[in-house]
Every structure is written in structure tokens, then in C-alpha cells.
Amino acid sequence: MDFFQKIGNTLSNTGKDIAEKTKKLSDTSKLNSEISKQQNTINQVYSQIGKIYFEKYSNLDCSELKELCTSITEANTKIEELKKEITQIKGLTNCPNCNAEVSTSATFCGSCGNKLKEENPTV
Ligand SMILES: [Zn+2]
What we know:
Number of domains: 2
Largest sheet: 2 strands, antiparallel
Structural class: mainly alpha
Number of helices: 2
Number of strands: 2
Bound molecules: zinc ion
Oligomer: single chain
């Protein structure tokens, strides 16, 4: 094998290496995306398990989980507060009967027809 042939072999081997590495890279990214897909499934199931537990057993006295359930309750309360804030910013209020968004100036709820305020307010 002479010098130039050696160089030629080295070059074509390098090309093969790169192609193989590229293939391996695309293989690993495929596998990685499959892994994260499976992890998403696991996380979804975890949260379903948690939801079922929260709905059925949050009253049971298991201190560790009770604390976590309290966090969910607190977060839900916070969400309700934030939603109310958004409603107020939009110049709306919630119907006390059906909870639909209604204008603060509306007399009746457009959704359920509930009377929202006295028709002759004493101002
Ligand atoms: Zn209503």
C-alpha cells in the first residue's frame, strides 16, 4: 500500500465514520424522543393516580400525602382568586347563580337570566 492509497483509505474511512456517527446521532435522538414520550406517559399516569387519590382519599389521615393534598387545595384556591382578578380587570363579574362572566353593569345574567341587581338602584 503506497502513501497516496493510505491517505485515500483514511479519507474514505473518515467519511464512513462521519456517516455512521450521523446515523448514530439520529438514532439516539429518535431513541431519546421515544424515552421522553414514555416519560410523559409515566408523568401523565402519575398525575392521574394523584388526582384519583386526591379526589377519593385526601381526607384520610396520611400526613405525608395530606400535606401534598393541602398544597393542591391551596393552589386551586389561588387559581380561583387569580381568575376572579382577571374577570375584574376585564370589567366583568361572575353570576352568583351560574358563575358565568357577566358585565358589571348588567342587570340580568345573559346565561341563566338571574337577576344581578335591583332595577332601580338607589344612587
Ligand atoms: Zn347566571
